[in-house]
């Protein structure tokens, strides 16, 4: 009798909707371009790592779903989301009105500003110096730097490139007068090339860009869960832990320069 009772309890638990839903929950496929350390990167053996990877895993744990990281080129992220090859994007993506026409975003989880990498002989001291006919501005295709340059630097020649490293090389070799990108990247690129580049880290706009987790339109339930996760991560110290793990020295430098930090 005891054995039969145990079997009955086990079957009742197994057939409970909560357990059925957990068992049938599909993996959460998270798209990101693993080319933006320390947010999105990979180890020597190709394992995804970085702030966004840790954030994705924490989100998966919160949702009760296994996380699969899909490494996708930047300009393929939104198409992959729209065609359902991935479920969400966590790739330091800025929330913009243009992107919101085709996809949806969570509430912001971080902020970032655009700034300038130039070279010692360019004569560039601020963004005003770039909107000139004789200036060449390098940008990475599809980024907010690209969008900004097209909209605000109409007199300059915009050099659109697929990779950040290519844009930096153009500046170093003086084929471009500047590279417009986010502050963290510009700071790190300058650290690698201190003799051949100059980092102008002050924001080029008054309003920062805000990063969000991207998802498809008309998925209110998933969006609500993601938003709740972000609020929880902000209140329980998750983002501070990630900053201390990956960005401790950078955070210190930003404070010294009186520049707003990401989180």
How would you describe this protein?
The chain has 263 residues and is an alpha/beta fold. The protein contains 11 helices and 14 strands. Helices cover 41% and strands 19% of the residues. It folds into 2 domains: 2-111 and 208-256, 3-Layer(aba) Sandwich (D-Maltodextrin-Binding Protein, domain 2); 114-200, Periplasmic binding protein-like II (D-Maltodextrin-Binding Protein, domain 2), CATH 3.40.190.10. The radius of gyration is 22 Å and the shape is globular.
Gross geometry: globular
Series of H and E elements: HHEEEHEHEHEEEEHEHEHEEEHHH
Radius of gyration: 22 Å
CATH C-level of the largest domain: Alpha Beta
Structural class estimated from helices and strands: alpha/beta
Largest sheet: 5 strands, mixed
Work out the count of structural domains: 2
Whole-number mean pLDDT = 90
CATH homology group of the largest domain: Periplasmic binding protein-like II
Q: Output the CATH topology of the largest domain.
A: D-Maltodextrin-Binding Protein, domain 2
Stretches where pLDDT is under 50 for at least 5 consecutive residues are 17-23
Q: Helix segment count?
A: 11
Strand content: 15-25%
Task: Output the strand order for the largest sheet.
Answer: 4-1-5-14-6
Estimate the helix proportion, in percent.
40-55%
Span of the ends, CA to CA = 59 Å
CATH architecture of the largest domain: 3-Layer(aba) Sandwich
Number of strands: 14
């Amino acid at each position: 009798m005891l054995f039969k009772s145990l079997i009955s309890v086990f079957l009742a638990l197994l057939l409970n909707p909560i357990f059925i839903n957990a068992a049938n929950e599909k993996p959460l496929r998270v798209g990101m371009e693993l080319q933006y350390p320390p947010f999105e990167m990979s180890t020597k053996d190709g394992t995804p790592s970085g702030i966004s990877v840790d954030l994705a895993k924490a989100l998966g744990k919160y949702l009760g779903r296994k996380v699969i990281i899909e490494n996708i080129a930047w300009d393929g992220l939104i198409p992959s989301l729209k065609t359902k090859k991935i479920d969400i994007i966590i790739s330091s993506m800025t929330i913009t009105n243009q992107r919101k026409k085709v996809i949806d975003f969570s509430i912001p989880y971080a902020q970032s500003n655009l700034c300038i990498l130039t070279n010692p002989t360019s004569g560039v001291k601020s963004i005003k110096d770039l909107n000139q006919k004789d200036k060449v501005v390098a940008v990475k295709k599809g980024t907010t730097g690209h969008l900004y340059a097209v909209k605000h630097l109409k007199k300059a020649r915009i050099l659109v490139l697929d990779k950040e490293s290519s844009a930096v090389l153009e500046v170093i070799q003086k084929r471009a007068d500047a590279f417009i990108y986010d502050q963290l990247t510009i700071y790190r690129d300058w650290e690698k090339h201190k003799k051949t580049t100059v980092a102008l880290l002050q924001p080029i706009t008054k309003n920062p860009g805000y990063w969000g987790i991207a998802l498809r339109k008309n998925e209110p339930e998933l969006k609500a869960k993601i938003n709740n996760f972000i609020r929880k991560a902000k209140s329980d110290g998750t983002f501070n832990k990630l900053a201390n793990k990956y960005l401790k020295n950078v955070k210190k430098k930003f404070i010294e320069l009186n520049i707003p930090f990401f989180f």
